[in-house]
Specification:
cell membrane, antiport, transmembrane, globular, antiporter activity, mainly alpha
Length: about 450
C-alpha cells in the first residue's frame, strides 16, 4: 500500500479493517475457550468458564507489555520506509524477529513459577482456582510462538500489508475451534484441553507468517543468516515500544485489580463479566485498528517529512473510528442481551453481563479518542508522554476507584462506572498533550 501518495480515506479503511478482523480473531482464541468451556465442559460449566475468564486480564497484562515492542518495530520500519532506508528496514526486521523469540522463551519459563502467586492475589473462588492455574501455565508455554506471530504481523503492517496476518489467523482460528471441541468433547480435558488447543492454533499462524517472510521478495524478506540484534535499531525499537508496552501492562494490571473486585462478588458475576468481555474485545479491536493505522501512516509520512499529510491522517482516523465504534455501540444496545445469551444462557449471567456491556460501550467513545491521538504521537516517535498520561488517567483512576469507591458502594454497577470515568479523564489528558506537543509543526 502506498501510504505516501494519493487518497487517504479509503486506504485507512482498507488498512484498518483487516487489522480489526485480525485482532478480533486473536481475541476469538480465548473467547472460543470461554464459550466451549462454558457449554461443553464435563464438570461444572460455570466454574470452567469462570476459570478461563478470570485468566484473561492476566494474559492481557503480559501480552500488552510485549506488544508495545512489536509496535516499536512497526514504527521504526515505517519511518525507515518513508526515508527510503532499505538497510534500516532489514536491520529492524531481523532484530524484531529475534527479539520476539528471546522474550517469548524468557516469559514461558518465568511464568511457570509466577502463576500461582499471581492468581493467589485475585480472591478466586476455590472451585475455580485449580483450573485457572492449569490454563494459565499451558497458555504461557506458548508465548514464544504467540509473540512471534504478533511481531511478524507488525512487520507486515509496516508496509501496509494487513491481509496476510488476517489470512494466517483465519486458518489458525479454524484449527482452534476443531481442537477445542476435540480436546473437550472427545478427550474430556475441559480447561486443560482448551489451553492446549489455543497454543497449537497459535503455532499455525506463526509458522504461516514465518514462511511468508522467508519467501517474500519485498523489502521485509527474512534471511536466517542475517538474524541478529542490531543494537542501535534495538535501542530505537525499545525507546518507542517499551513505554507503550508498559502502558499496556499497567493498563491490564488495572483490569486485573478490577477483576479481583469482580471475583469478590461471586462466580455468577465472574461468568457474566467474562461473557460481556468477549463483546468488548470485538469493539476494542475495531477502534484500536484505527490507532494502528494512524501510527503506521503517520510513521511513513513523518519519515518522508510530509507533515500536512500527517495532520489529515489524524482527522480521518478519528472520524472513521467514531463511525465504526458508534455502529458497534448500537448493536450492543439493541441486541446485547441476546448476544450474551449465546455465550451463557443463565438468566442472571445475561442480566449482569448486559449491565457491564451497556456501561463499558458508552465509555468507548472516550477510549477511541485518546487511543488514536496516542497513536498519532507515536507515529512521530513520541511514546513516553502518552504512555505516562494513560497510566495516570486510566490506571490511576481505576486503582483509586477500587480502593475507595467500591468498598463504600459494594455492587457490580458501581464497579463498572470506573470505565467511563477513567477513560474520560484520559481523553482530556491526551488531548492536552497533543495540543502541547503539536508534532507536525514541531518537527517541520
Amino acid at each position: 500500500m502506498d501510504m505516501l501518495n494519493g487518497s487517504l480515506w479509503d486506504k485507512i479503511f482498507k488498512f484498518s479493517m483487516p487489522v480489526a478482523a485480525t485482532a478480533i480473531l486473536e481475541q476469538f482464541f480465548t473467547a472460543t475457550d470461554v464459550v466451549i468451556a462454558g457449554n461443553f465442559a464435563n464438570s461444572d460449566r460455570t466454574a470452567a468458564m469462570a476459570a478461563v475468564g478470570t485468566d484473561l486480564p492476566i494474559i492481557g497484562m503480559i501480552i500488552f507489555l510485549f506488544l508495545g515492542l512489536a509496535l516499536g518495530s512497526n514504527v521504526v520500519i515505517a519511518q525507515s520506509i518513508g526515508r527510503r532506508d532499505t538497510e534500516g528496514v532489514k536491520k529492524a526486521v531481523h532484530t524484531a524477529v529475534l527479539l520476539s523469540l528471546i522474550i517469548g522463551i524468557a516469559v514461558a519459563v518465568f511464568a511457570q513459577f509466577a502463576v500461582v502467586p499471581i492468581l493467589g492475589l485475585l480472591e478466586i473462588p476455590a472451585e475455580v482456582l485449580p483450573s485457572a492455574v492449569m490454563y494459565l501455565r499451558i497458555y504461557f508455554l506458548g508465548m514464544p510462538i504467540i509473540l512471534l506471530y504478533n511481531f511478524e504481523a507488525a512487520i507486515f503492517r509496516s508496509i501496509g500489508e494487513t491481509q496476510k496476518p488476517l489470512m494466517a489467523l483465519i486458518a489458525a482460528s479454524l484449527v482452534n475451534i476443531v481442537l477445542d471441541l476435540f480436546f473437550v468433547c472427545v478427550c474430556k480435558l475441559d480447561v486443560t484441553g482448551v489451553a492446549i488447543a489455543t497454543v497449537l492454533a497459535n503455532a499455525v499462524s506463526a509458522l504461516i507468517l514465518l514462511r511468508l517472510l522467508l519467501k517474500t521478495d519485498s523489502i521485509i524478506k527474512l534471511e536466517w543468516n542475517k538474524l541478529h540484534l542490531d543494537m542501535p535499531t534495538l535501542k530505537e525499537i525499545v525507546s518507542i515500544g517499551l513505554p507503550a508496552g508498559i502502558q499496556g501492562a499497567v493498563f491490564s494490571l488495572a483490569n486485573v485489580v478490577i477483576q479481583g473486585a469482580i471475583n469478590s462478588l461471586g462466580t455468577e458475576v465472574i461468568a457474566a463479566s467474562s461473557a460481556s468481555l468477549i463483546l468488548e474485545m470485538v469493539a476494542f479491536s475495531i477502534f484500536s485498528s484505527f490507532t494502528q493505522a494512524c501510527t503506521t501512516f503517520v510513521g511513513q509520512n513523518y519519515g518522508a517529512r510530509q507533515m500536512a499529510r500527517c495532520r489529515v491522517i489524524l482527522r480521518l482516523c478519528l472520524l472513521e473510528d467514531v463511525i465504526c465504534t458508534g455502529f458497534c455501540m448500537l448493536i450492543v444496545f439493541l441486541f446485547g442481551d441476546r448476544l450474551i445469551a449465546l455465550i451463557n444462557d443463565d438468566s442472571e449471567v445475561i442480566r449482569l453481563g448486559y449491565i457491564r456491556a451497556s456501561i463499558v460501550f458508552c465509555a468507548y467513545i472516550f477510549s477511541l479518542l485518546y487511543d488514536v491521538m496516542s497513536g498519532y504521537l507515536r507515529g512521530f516517535g513520541i511514546s513516553f508522554l502518552p504512555s505516562l498520561l494513560t497510566i495516570l488517567g486510566v490506571c490511576g483512576v481505576r486503582f483509586l476507584w477500587v480502593a475507595f469507591v467500591f468498598p463504600v458502594y459494594h455492587d457490580f454497577r458501581t464497579l463498572m462506572y470506573v470505565y467511563p470515568v477513567s477513560m474520560g479523564v484520559t481523553a482530556v489528558l491526551i488531548f492536552a498533550a497533543l495540543m502541547w506537543c503539536r508534532p507536525s509543526k514541531r518537527f517541520a
